[in-house]
Every structure is written in structure tokens, then in C-alpha cells.
Amino acid sequence: MIWLGIDTSNSPLAVAIVKDGQVVAEEVANIKLNHSIGAMPAIERLFERTKMKPAEIDAIAVGEGPGSYTGVRIGVTIAKTLAWTLKKPLVGISSLKLLAANAALYNGVICSIIDARRQNVYAGAYNTTAGLTSVVEDGHYSLEGLLEKLKDLNVPVMFVGHDVDLFWESILAQLGNHAVRAPFTLDLPSASQLIQLASQQELPDIEAVHSFVPQYRRLAEAEANWIKEQKGQ
Amino acid sequence: MGEFIMENRYILGIESSCDETAASIVKNGCEIVSNVVASQIESHKRFGGVVPEIASRHHVEQVTLVIEEALAQANMKPEDLDAVAVTEGPGLVGALLIGINAAKAFAFANGLPLIGVHHIAGHIYANALMQPMEFPLLALVVSGGHTELVFMKEHGSFELIGETRDDAAGEAYDKVARVLNIQYPGGPHIDRMAHESDEAVKFPRVWLEEDSYDFSFSGLKSAVINYKHNAEQRGIEVNPLHVAKGFQDSVVEVLTAKTLRAARQFNVKQVIAAGGVSANKGLRKSLEETFANEGIPFYVPPLKLCTDNAAMIAAAGTFMFEAGKRSDMAMNGRPGMELVSWHK
Ligand SMILES: Nc1ncnc2c1ncn2[C@@H]1O[C@H](COP(=O)(O)OP(=O)(O)OP(=O)(O)O)[C@@H](O)[C@H]1O
Ligand SMILES: [Mg+2]
Q1: DSSP string, B81-108
Q2: How high does pLDDT run on average in chain A?
Q3: Do A17 and A82 lie in a common domain?
Q4: Domain-ending residue, one of A186, A203, A218
Q5: To test the ligand 1 pocket, which listed residue (B44, B125, B143) has its Cβ within 8 A of the most ligand atoms?
Q6: Mean pLDDT over residues B238-264, rounded?
Q7: Fewer Cβ within 10 Å of end Cβ, chain A: N or C?
Q8: Domain range for B178
Q9: Same domain for B240 and B115?
Q10: In angstroms, what is the span from residue A101 Cα to ligand 2's centroid?
Q11: Pairwise CB contact (< 8 Å): A213 & B57
Q12: Chain B positions touching chain A (beta carbons under 8 Å)
């Protein structure tokens, strides 16, 4: 079984090919290169280096968001077009769960954080004691609101993600010695991790590829305003 | 393109620069084999215009469906194609990126060359789908974002001889429609209203400098707003039909006169119109009559090839393909892309 994994849901780029449970080639970069410039050349490189052909792939895994709207869409568009034209199943994985999985050996609660600007975050918290079970649902939160939820858990929380540093002072101020910083080696998404999570799921129907869409976890601003207006009337 | 094509060329075109997700297969740059357009207009109506983020979200939902449909209607498989052409710019960047990344993934998976096409070159080449282009040629490009006179001495050679200094013609139509409380997109409604009216409010014609081929429509738009405002203040009822006709008469007269003057100066063999506003009945009639009198062949594509579509991208892409133009997997969306000649 050969998997291609792609995650561009935030500024890092992660791609990998995994064959029968072994990483064949993997690339990760955190150089703020526009994904439209970087993603397809990275995928092209993977195939060149492994001397494989796109048609040899059996399934595709993609980071489905949340994160940068444009970033998520680039990864999802590439993944769904490849899956559709190669007639292979496509599995989407939460970009927050993907980060949390990096710290899955930690015993307790992990919170993955992605900057959503203006003191807002995309975040989710997972308990590692029985697989990765969600304790704070993936979503768009104010930093303050998220930290309150985590404080109420009253247990140590390990924070993972390359955006955590932006918020570390506030996290410490709220959670004190319940705040645990994951080592930086766990901060970037890994496409082999993505494939490992995807391979635990049942493969969806090939026909489902057309209706695959990103999980934005947030309405477009114009739509949110429009709904507000309708309620006001 | 005749003589230098040895075998049939089939190019897949993909377009997503604004609010239509489109895919099409064109044979030899001149014959539509399939042409699929998924329009989002209904979804944007409640916002009174295209919302970029919403447009991008819809493109992701539609893009594989329209490509599949284009192949199905053509009864073709990816291996029957020679290349993939996609709109590289200008347009809404988030929207462009969906078509571009779908095109790249499709081209990569199927081992096909990739060609990035300028959206306005596409609008111009919609004409190649109807009759061969004869050079030297003058193109009047009138769309939602552009109003330009483009001189072409041969295929792939573009010389901008005039452009709007403010609003594009389509933009002016849509803004005036809003003033008259007409639903987005207003262009086609104003066109219809102008036709239903015998009387016209007299609005100014903006000619700019005597020898200029540039356009300006923002003054005309302000004149419409002022007219309505003054009438309302004096308690006079505004007849929207008369306003529509007055506005359209002014736009059509200026576009026609400048196109005629340029056609004469550049001594062209053919005049073509392109872009969404070239669907306008008043403009088509005026250009047709004018150039019939002048004895210069004038062409404008049928309505569905005037507005955004992928057949025009495939058509332009075919001529670029023959000229050896290729893009690579690092292609990015170029919202402000300029129309440059691909002819060496
Ligand atoms: N019959 C008509 N009369 C006048 N304007 C029209 C008519 N039909 C369409 N339009 C206008 O054409 C525009 C849409 O054209 P088109 O789709 O080519 O533009 P665009 O793709 O948004 O812009 P661009 O091609 O410059 O990027 C709109 O402004 C619309 O109001
Ligand atoms: Mg257009």
C-alpha cells in the first residue's frame, strides 16, 4: 500500500510517500514560501527521488484544515484533483490533530495551536490516554476563551505547534505550572504522521472525492455579517 | 493555424479567475469539443457583488466536477489530451489559485504540459473559436475589469493602445445598476431596459484628449448619480428606463467612435470585440453597423463565449502551445498580470 501525504494548511509545507508502513521520502519546510509556488514542485521532487509514478499511489492523505484559508485550499485542491484523476481514495485529517499526534507519546492532554490573528487561534485539545480523543473540540477560539477551557480541565497540558511561542506568555500567565511546552522538534506538521493517521481510517469511496472540501471551522466574514444582518431584521 | 499543425491538438482549458468555475476541451484552437461553466452568480447575489473568499470556496467544490464533465461531454480521457491551459491572471488571487493548482495536479498526474494563459488573451481568443483571426487586428476588450483597445500584428502579439483610466465598462454598468436598485450583476438588465426605452436622459460623453484611445467612465457614473439625486430632491420621478438608455447611449457611442478611429489609424483587416460587455446588444449593433459601413470585417463571439469560460483559455492556450510556451509546477496566481506578447 503506497500513500501520498500533503499538508499545506498553514505556513509549513509537508509532503511524504509512505510504502507498506515505511517512509520512503519526506519533506518538510517552514520557509514561508507561498504554497502555490512550493507544493507541486515538492511533490514532483518526491516522485523523482523515489523513481515512482503518480499512478503507483494507492491512496492520498491531506491536511483538511483549519488554518490559512488559501493554504488549506491549495493542499486540498491538489489532493482532490490527484485523487480524482488517478481514481484513488482521499482521506482528510484535521491539521490540529496532525500536530497533536506529534506529541502522542506524552501521557495526558495535548493542545495544538495555530495562529488565527488578532489574539484568536485555531485550537483543539486531545487526550492521549486512549488514542487521540478530543477534549476541546477543534475550532476557532479567542486565546482567552481557549485558555479558560484548558484551565477548567485542571490538568497539565502540553502545547504543540510552531505558533505556540506567539502566545506562550499568556498561556503561562493563565495555566502556570500546568502549561508544558512541547520540544520544538514536534512543532511542525509531518506528512508521514498524516499518512499514519489516515491509514487508521476506513478508506472512503472514490466517488466521494468530488464533494471533499476543507474544514475551515469558520464562516467567511461576508457570510457571518450577512447572517448577523438577517437576524437583526 | 492551418499549415503547421500536423495532427489534431486537444487542449483542456481551466478558468477560475472570478466567479465561474469552468473547463473546456478545444480542438486545434478553433473548435469547441466541450464547454462547461459552473456559475456562482446566485450565491453572490445576496452580497450585491462577488465576495472573493466565497468565490474561492465554491471553486474548490466545483473544480474536479467541471473537469470531469468537460472530459465526459467530449467523450475523452486524459491521455487523449495534448496539454492543459489555465488562467494564470489577472483576477482574484484566491480564485485563480484553485484553477491553477487543479491544472498543475492534473497535468502532473497525466504527464501533460502546462500552459499559463492571460485571462484577457483568453477573451480575445474566444474569437478564434468562431472564425480565423486576420492580422493586423484590433480587439476591443470590454469586461468587468477591463476596457482596452489591443492592436495585434500577428498571433501572440499584443500592443495596448488605449485603456480605461478609472472604471471598466462592466464595472460602470454594475455600479449604475446599483444606483437604480437593480440586482447584481446589472449589466444585462441595463441593456434590456435601454432597449425597452425610446427616450434617453442626455448624459455626457467623455472623450479625453483628442488623440487618446483611453477611456474614462467614472464621470458618467457620477452624472447618473447626480441626475437621480437632483430629481429626487425636486420631487421629480426618475424613469429608470430613460436613465438606462441615456447611460448606454453614452458608453456605446464612445466605445464605437474610439474603436473606429483606431481601426482606421492602424489600418486593420479585422476588428473583434471581447469580454462580458461585448454581450451588450446596443454595443454589438453599433459596432456591426459602423464597421459594415466602413467595410472592415467585424466579429463578436456568441454571448456564452463573451463572458468567462474555459474554451477561450483553451483556444489561447493552443496558440501558446504551438509557439512553444510552457509553464512549470511553480506557477503562481498573478492577480495583476500584464498582457505581454508571447510571440518571440
Ligand atoms: N448585456 C450586457 N450589457 C452590459 N454589460 C454586460 C452585459 N452582460 C454582461 N455584462 C457585464 O460584463 C461583466 C462581466 O464580464 P466578464 O465576465 O468578462 O468580466 P470579468 O471576468 O468579471 O472581468 P475581467 O474579464 O476583466 O477579469 C459584468 O460587469 C457584467 O455586468
Ligand atoms: Mg472575464
Answers
A1: -SEEEEEEESS-HHHHHHHHHHHHHHHH
A2: 97
A3: yes
A4: A186
A5: B143
A6: 97
A7: C
A8: 134-300
A9: no
A10: 45
A11: yes
A12: 46-47, 51, 53-54, 56-57, 60-61, 63-65, 67-68, 78, 93-94, 97-98, 100-102, 104-106, 108-110, 328-333
What total number of domains does chain B contain? 2
CB of residue B104 inside a 6 A radius of ligand 1? no
Is residue B62 domain-shared with residue B39, that is, in the same domain? Answer: yes
* CB spacing of A78 vs B94 below 8 angstroms: no
My answer on whether A10 and A45 are in the same domain is yes
CB contact residues (below 8 A), chain A span 57-76, against chain B:
69-70, 73-74, 76
Confidence band of B1 (pLDDT split at 50, 70, 90): low
Of all residues in chain A, the percent with pLDDT exceeding 70 is 100
CATH number, domain of A28, equals 3.30.420.40
Question: A198-206: long-range contacts (C-beta < 8 A, 24 or more apart)?
Answer: A198/A3, A198/A5, A198/A59, A198/A61, A198/A91, A198/A93, A199/A1, A199/A3, A199/A18, A199/A21, A199/A59, A199/A61, A201/A91, A203/A59, A203/A89, A203/A91, A204/A89, A204/A90, A204/A91, A205/A89, A206/A83, A206/A87, A206/A88, A206/A89
The pTM score is 0.96
> What total number of domains does chain A contain?
2
Q: Is residue B328 part of a domain?
A: no
Do residue A215 and residue A178 come from a single domain? no
Q: Which of A36, A77, A80 sits opposite B332 (nearest CB)?
A: A36
Looking at the structure, do residues A145 and A119 belong to the same domain, yes or no? yes
Per-residue pLDDT at B343 exceeds 90 = no
CA–centroid distance, B6 to ligand 2, in Å, is 32
What's the domain range around A165? 96-186
Q: Please report, in angstroms and rounded to a whole number, the separation of the first and last CA atoms in chain A.
A: 56
Interchain proximity B105–A211, CB inside 8 Å: no
Helices then strands (H, E): number in chain B?
Answer: 11, 10
Residue nearest to atom 5 of ligand 1 (CA): B187
Query: What residue's CA is closest to ligand 1, atom 16?
Result: B276
Indicate the residue of B47, B110, B329 with minimum beta-carbon distance to A40: B329
CATH number of domain containing A159: 3.30.420.200
A77 closest CB neighbour out of B51, B102, B330: B102
State whether B292 and B197 are in the same domain: yes
Q: Is residue B344 part of a domain?
A: no
The residue of chain B nearest to residue A222, with distances taken between CA atoms, is B51
How do residues A57-109 score in pLDDT, each as one tens digit?
999 999 999 999 999 999 999 999 999 999 999 999 999 999 999 999 999 99
Q: For residue B111, what is the enclosing H or E element?
A: none
